[in-house]
Amino acid sequence: MEMFYHCLLLAVVAFWLGACPFSVWVGKWLLHKDIRQYGDGNPGAYNVFRAGGRKTGVLAMVLDIGKGIPFVAIAHYQLGLPTAAVMVVGLSAILGHAYTPVLGFKGGKALGVTGGVLIALPQHEILLSVLVFLALSSLLVVPDAWRVVSGMTGSLVYLTVTHGLSLEPLFMVCVIAILAAKHYNDLKVMPRFGGKLGSRLRPRRTADLGQQ
After folding, report:
1. Count of CB atoms situated within 10 Å of the CB of 68
2. How confident is the model over 124-134, as pLDDT tens digits?
3. What does each C-alpha distance from 109 to 106, 115, 126, 178, 208 come to in angstroms?
4. Taking a C-beta distance cutoff of 8 angstroms, is the pair 133, 160 a contact?
5. How does strand 192-193 pair with strand 141-142?
């Protein structure tokens, strides 16, 4: 029962840390701008780059990533909570960022905080598989939303093959569901070959079809 209360408490505080819109605050306090008026209107670090340049953008990105780390680390390394509980704490941080009450439940796309959670999780294989498949999808697929979903899905497939129906794939299913929901409008654009490798494959395929 004590572990349950620890998990519940950490999940709540992780949610509210995730809900802190640091990128919006950086824009407001340092740039005196509403970053939601830039780019796609997303209250995330990418639009801080657009509104204020590299220095403030990096600051916002570090803050967003940092939201996913502390309470996941506390759950595992300090309290020794079970893997399922640690993952619940991580998902709470991601949900807090994606659906922050501070901004009327219109939060960011949760990429930075997801990265922070993956860094803090003791299952480092999840982070490594995500990085590998994101790198691969960035070479093959456009637009960016499909790169994210494709990379995460690749990690899910890998984890399912290597771990079976365990907590790792289940965690990735939850992460993909949140990210897909936050990228819903962008995912309406059909994916296509793009990036350095994809752009080379696409003309070759077109030429091959023309010869048939």
Report:
1. 30
2. 999 999 999 99
3. 10, 12, 20, 9, 38
4. no
5. antiparallel
pLDDT-wise least confident of 4-8, 116-120, 141-145, 205-209: 205-209
Closest CA to 179 of 135, 212, 134, 209: 134
pTM passes above 0.85 = yes
The CA-CA-CA angle for residues 81, 83, 87, to 5°, reads 100
Q: Which amino acid is at 198?
A: G
Instruction: Using alpha carbons, select from 139, 140, 157 the residue that is nearest to residue 192.
Output: 140
Domain parsing of the chain, residue ranges: 123-197
Amino acid letter, residue 61: M
pLDDT-derived band at 199 (thresholds 50, 70, 90) equals low
Token output for 56: 């403030």
Alpha helices in the chain (DSSP H): 2-19, 22-26, 45-52, 54-66, 70-73, 83-98, 111-120, 124-140, 144-163, 167-182, 184-187, 195-211
3-state secondary structure of 68: coil
Retrieve residue 110's tokens: 């949760």
